[in-house]
Amino acid sequence: MRNFEYWNPTRLFFGRGETDRVGQECRKYGERVLLAYGGGSIKKTGLYDRIVRRLQEAGCSVTELSGIQPNPRLSKVREGVEICRREKVEVVLAVGGGSVIDTAKIVAAGVCYDGDPWDFFTGKSVPERKLPLGTVLTLAATGSEMNRNAVITNDETQEKLVVKNPVLFPDFSILDPENTFTVPKDHTVYGIVDMMAHVFEQYFHPVPETPLQDRLAESIMKTIIEYTPRVLENPKDYDARATIMWCGTLALNHLIEAGLTGDWATHRMELELSGVYDIPHGAGLAILFPQWMEYVLPLIPKKFAQFAERVWDIPRGNRSDEDLGRAGIERTRQWFREIGAPTRLREVGIGEERLEEMAERVAKRGPIGSVKVLTKEDILTIYRRSL
């Protein structure tokens, strides 16, 4: 295990009815609130009216940033920064999933920066402060409600990049599982794939002697696998939704990566896919991850054998570590298919045409991977094997 520092300042309010705290929590930071949300589903479910009512009861005035899309756009961030400055916003409130929260994070930081928020993603600048930020989570997936990460797509260049900075931790997040009851099946599935992929990135690594981190990661993976059928069969199963929601948060609140170096190559490769083709992030991860696993299997066969035995309960028999690990990888691919995720690029309309271009762009952004540092040729091979 390696040395580490762990700090997570986000205050969580978890459970049924916690949504009603939103007004009093925002009011602690100011009166003028920017309400950021997506395509309008929160209005259909009544959540929008509920939140606005609670904000007004607490003495807050509300300005809106609506229409935030999946694979959130830089143009919407810039719009949000402009609104905040014009309306003298004091608090940013994100109501939605990871795309809304990530947009709100960069808006909150961008207001406090004199340049273009894209500078945070290109390394030209780093966030130094932000407006107070709260979230009401409506989709269990990214863990953005309790982490320091944000992912944004540049509309003009089709680049989809990530920034990681402690300034971006939300000040508070409200996790009410009832707010996920109406999430469509495909969004639920892609959210589940995303949280599993987050655990994969931190579980498969080259650092020796991380038994506690391994067990934490394995418990999250096994719980997701156990509760996914319940969520898909009955979207209003409160306990199942609550369990999946908490798994999504724990999968990427930086706890299980303490003391190790995660890989994150698959995420870097997928960001290029969804940046160029605008496919769901979870779909891209379901396609790429089994291919990456097979590619690096010979480098850490014992970890993959452990994964097969502990997570998928596959008996060893007379198999070698590599053969057992391969069985675990195939079971992972099969599970993705069972829950309704794609496992081939052609299933989402992607062919050979831009694979080399994308591989080159990923490689140019710096070394990726800790299990194996991937070159352009490695990345292109994984892309091609995913067709």
From TrEMBL:
Keywords for the protein's UniProt record, in alphabetical order: Oxidoreductase
Protein name: Iron-containing alcohol dehydrogenase
A family per Pfam: ADH_Fe_C
Species per Swiss-Prot/TrEMBL record: Candidatus Caldatribacterium saccharofermentans
InterPro entries the UniProt entry points to: ADH_Fe/GldA, ADH_Fe_C, ADH_Fe_CS, BDH-like
GO molecular function: alcohol dehydrogenase (NADP+) activity; butanol dehydrogenase (NAD+) activity; metal ion binding; methylglyoxal reductase (NADPH) (acetol producing) activity
Domain Fe-containing alcohol dehydrogenase-like C-terminal: 188-386
Membrane as UniProt keyword: no
